[in-house]
Amino acid sequence: MSDQILIAPSILSADFRKLGDEIKAVVDAGADLIHCDIMDGLFVPNISYGPMIVEWAKKASTVPLDVHLMIVDPIRYIKHFRDAGADIITVHAEACADLPAVIDAINDSGAQVGVSVNPDKPVDLFLPYLEKIDMVLIMSVYAGFGGQKFMPGVLDKVRAVRSRAEMIGHNTLAIEIDGGITGDNAQLCAEAGADIFVAGSYVFGATDYRERIDAVRNAAKAGRKSAGGKS
Ligand code: DX5
Ligand code: ZN
Question: On the chain, which terminus has fewer CB atoms closer than 10 Å, C or N?
Answer without folding.
Answer: C
